[in-house]
Hints:
Layout: E1 5-9, H1 16-33, E2 39-43, H2 49-56, E3 62-66, H3 83-88, E4 93-96, H4 99-104, H5 109-121, E5 125-130, H6 134-138, H7 142-153, H8 159-162, E6 166-169, H9 183-201, H10 203-208, E7 211-214, H11 222-226, E8 233-236, H12 243-250
Parallel strand pairs: 1-2, 1-8, 2-3, 3-4, 4-5, 5-6, 6-7, 7-8
Bound molecules: phosphoenolpyruvate.
Amino acid sequence: MRKKIVAGNWKMNLDYNEGLALFSEISNMVKDELTGKQQAVICSPFIHLHALVQLGKGNDRISVGAQNAHQMEAGAYTGEVSAKMIKSVGAEYVILGHSERRQYFGESNELLAKKTDTALANGLKPIFCIGETLEERNSEVHFNVVKDQLADGLFHLDEEQFAKIVIAYEPVWAIGTGLTATSDQAQEIHAFIRKEIAARYGEEVAEDTTILYGGSCNAKNAPDLFAKTDIDGGLIGGASLKSRDFVDILKVFN
Ligand code: PEP
């Protein structure tokens, strides 16, 4: 059975104390209210990571991740944070290739392939984001876009490495816009992603790969989305900033 995950992406929100307070609330609610095998992951800004890992100790249902990591191991890259540093504070996951990184920081599939290698070499589990823009969906090239993102960003990995990857399908037009892909639209492309993985790594690996949906996912639309065979959870932006909203999304898997 593949892992069910609901990951929160706090983006560039919450100061240090606000972040710790929100994490504590979520951690307590997760402990009290979750009854299934679902995993909560909080992807915070770098400054929170160490403290969140400490706060989460003793609660196996919650993990901590970063939102980015540099592709190089170390060196003269002023202002950057390495995968080794992230791992050294006890974080487990790292989001790579979020559409905001692709759009505002020019991250290409080729760069993301390098970031993935470095993250894996340092023991982090990448949450690798893929998804098409509105223009690409309207011109009906979304399957090709996603196919290329997988092939160029991930399919150089061997099977053992690929087993550590979580994929997040996030249509760019649905992120932070209030527009959600319908559950049928999401299922259609998740099934396509799984088929591509099966073609590269075989059925068994494809069946074991966790594929999250992201894009204005909330407690109202999550039940419909998560009921689909190929949707294994969510990557949540806005709704991850409120403990009740975020935990209600997790509770869909109870
Ligand atoms: C995201 O940032 O990955 C995201 C899905 O954001 P939102 O839930 O706010 O659309």
